[in-house]
Amino acid sequence: MNKRNEHTTPRIRASVCMATYKGALYIGEQLDSILAQLGDDDELVIVDDASPDDTVQKIMAIDDPRIRLIQAGTNQGYVRSFQQAALASRGEFIFLADQDDVWIEGRLERMLSSLQSSAVVASNFDVLGGGPRPAIPRLRSADGRRSIANLFGILVGYRAYYGCGMAFRRELLGAFAPAPSYLRESHDLWLAIIGNMAGSIAHLDDSTLLRRIHDENATPRGWRSLATIFAARVVLVRLMVDARRRLPSLGGPPGQLS
Q: What is the CATH code of the structural domain delimited by 12-249?
């Protein structure tokens, strides 16, 4: 290894990982809100999932060396795109961000503070424009250490884990990605399961972003069929089993991450 390069290569503190697809309408506002909070030792890694609109052009129009754009050759779905961005990241702390939200001032530092003592942090959000939130209880900081209750809440569907409000330490990257091949949605619940299985997740009472609710959101807005709900619960159980298998390989048993 070149010792000179080892000392001159800047350390990356936070990597914000974003998956984009047909996001031209809102991407500019979100990028502005993120870049305003990033330091010179942070980066924004974007994987565009073969957008047919001018999303890529909107991103490339922003002249900022902290942006790293990766263009997928074919559409692979948002789970794989987030995974690709996380694997390409270089930061000590990895943040997930949607293409159409707006970060609230202070979000980055607030979550970085929580990541000093927890491997995963999950925050609340408000709705952009003040509209109604989804009918699911807000996260409470007091529940952060109630891992069993949180895992049960994930299965039942009342724990409000949204990827746009989550971040994790690099030590969990090997568990998070590559995701199990059968996972086609809910990468955020996968991360929440890992954090709770590891016994190292924090909930923030505060909202750290404004979420834009519209018809193109990846998270469904209406009720699903019973068959779809049952199939999703089977996937969640499988994810819990897989998370338990992966965690010992990170250098310590669940709840004892360094």
A: 3.90.550.10
- pLDDT tens track for 12-37: 999 999 999 999 999 999 999 999 99
Its pTM stands at 0.88
| Calpha distance 126→27 (Å, rounded) | 18
State how beta strands 120-127 and 166-169 pair: antiparallel
State how far the Cα of 33 lies from the Cα of 43, in Å rounded to an integer: 14
Residue 98 sits at the vertex; the CA angle it makes with 107 and 59, to the nearest 5 degrees, is 100
- Please return the burial class of 170, using the count of CB atoms within 10 Å of its CB with bins 0-12, 13-18 and 19+: middle
Q: Tell me the two tokens of residue 179.
A: 């995701």
* Strand, helix or coil for residue 122: strand
Condensed to tens digits (0 to 9), the pLDDT of residues 62-108 reads: 999 999 999 999 999 999 999 999 999 999 999 999 999 999 999 99
**Contact partners, residue 109, CB within 8 Å, separation at least 6:** 37
